[in-house]
Design brief:
Helix content is 78%, strand content 0%. With 209 residues, the protein is an all-alpha fold. Helix 6 crosses helix 7 and helix 6 runs parallel beside helix 8. The longest helix has 32 residues. The chain is globular. The relative contact order is 0.13.
């Protein structure tokens, strides 16, 4: 349920949702409820060749907020809300911002590096917050490594969902498998580093006291 109290408790989650919804409203007014690839590119979508030629690196971020259809944004926003409040609560808002930004940049940045190295993805236009959702899943996976007993049941159910989502990403050609996997990597690595640093600080404090 949306309330001022919840917005204050989970500001990163609600900011992400608001940006996605406002962007979708804007693109619907500019184009239509469903965008094609060229309209998605005009709206700030990600294409590695276009980024490389025009140097419009802002697309590495803006692509995370555009959605190509009503079903696309509804499913993504539902999944985002379902997972993000939980992760923001466990990680803490300030540190969670780092996880989200890293997930965004890895979702588009790693495929961009792959294009520079191997020329892959030159003819694709991608967008959506699903890479960030996978980043949140990766962050929850990192949390499980540090708190296995507390998160065992959640990790078990989440693991099956991740496998299903990755399978769907693999078999449906319009879904960016590389973006999903890249987001997952970014979220896991950033959260793991944050949790490891926190653990070392806590151990140092206990040792000195």
């Amino acid at each position: 349920r949306i309330s001022m109290n919840n917005i204050k408790k989970y500001p990163v989650t609600y900011t992400l949702l608001a940006l996605c919804i406002m962007t979708y409203i804007a693109t619907t007014l500019l184009f239509s409820i469903d965008m094609n690839a060229m309209q998605g590119l005009a709206a700030g979508g990600f294409n590695p060749y276009y980024v490389h030629v025009t140097h419009q690196y802002y697309r590495l971020i803006t692509a995370n907020f555009i959605h190509f259809g009503l079903m696309h944004i509804v499913v993504n926003c539902y999944s985002l809300f379902d997972l993000s409040c939980f992760a923001e609560y466990l990680i803490g808002t300030k540190k969670y911002i780092i996880v989200i930004l890293t997930s965004m940049l890895s979702t588009t940045g790693l495929p961009y590096i792959a294009y520079l190295l191997f020329g892959t993805g030159a003819h694709t236009v991608s967008g959506g917050v699903s890479g960030v959702i996978f980043g949140i899943i990766g962050a929850i996976g990192a949390l499980y490594l540090f708190f296995p007993s507390q998160l065992r049941d959640i990790a078990r159910s989440l693991g099956m969902n991740v496998l299903l989502m990755l399978f769907i990403s693999f078999v449906v050609p319009t879904i960016s498998l590389s973006g999903h996997v890249s987001g997952l990597i970014g979220g896991f690595v950033s959260a793991y580093i944050i949790l490891y640093i926190n653990k070392r600080k806590r151990e140092k404090f206990l040792h000195s006291s």
